[in-house]
Design a protein that fits this description.
Length: 211
């Protein structure tokens, strides 16, 4: 983050034509480990397929996925033990970063409920000059008081973990926008860029389940 609160790329992603190097990178995705030490899992941790959701709280397409598509995926794949989802923060602005940082101070069993509140109220906080105060109000529902919420939104360790995963997404998975997804099973990984339809997700997940 620069002094004005903007996110600065260590190595900025640049759109380019597919090259042999890109193909080699794609073939090496199986060797990439995504750190999940501080990330929360929705679903059975032993599910055969994992979906990593790279998302920003300030992204309208991310909100659409989380509020409209994810419930369908949850019903058909997550609740049935076939898929687990791991939310990976990919903040696109200062406010999204503050929300992401605060989310990691919410009790683990309420984490995804907190995400729902953030996405459902996206317009309220994104257009406000009192975003930190609004976020603190959301957090108070889950027992995080205002002082602790403010501390979380200024925690350098949390911020650095978020930016580390974000940078890996840019460099390795070529994520240049949100939402983006990585589907993984024991045989490999597949990157899905953009908010695709439920049917497209369904086909990709079923393909991995058949492997």
């Amino acid at each position: 983050m620069d002094p004005e609160g903007n996110i600065v790329f260590v190595n900025e992603a640049v759109a380019q034509d597919t090259t042999q190097e890109d193909k080699n990178i794609a073939s090496d995705l199986n060797n990439v480990n995504i750190s999940v030490d501080y990330l929360n899992i929705l679903g059975d941790e032993n599910a055969p397929v994992t979906m990593y959701e790279y998302s920003s709280f300030g992204c309208s397409h991310c909100a659409d996925f989380h509020l409209s598509t994810l419930p369908k995926l949850k019903k058909e794949f997550i609740d049935t033990g076939k898929l687990k989802l791991i939310f990976v923060d990919f903040p696109i602005d200062k406010k999204s970063m503050q929300g992401a940082m605060l989310s990691h101070c919410i009790p683990e069993d309420s984490y995804f409920e907190f995400l729902d509140i953030i996405f459902k109220n996206q317009r309220e906080w994104s257009f406000s000059m009192r975003t930190e105060k609004i976020f603190s109000t959301y957090a108070s529902v889950f027992g995080v008081n205002g002082r602790d919420a403010e501390k979380c939104m200024k925690d350098d360790d949390i911020q650095n973990r978020i930016l580390g995963n974000r940078q890996q997404a840019i460099e390795v998975f070529k994520v240049q926008g949100t939402p983006s997804f990585v589907l993984a099973n024991k045989n490999g990984k597949e990157v899905i860029h953009g908010a695709v339809s439920f049917d497209d997700f369904k086909n990709a997940i079923n393909k991995m389940l058949e492997q």
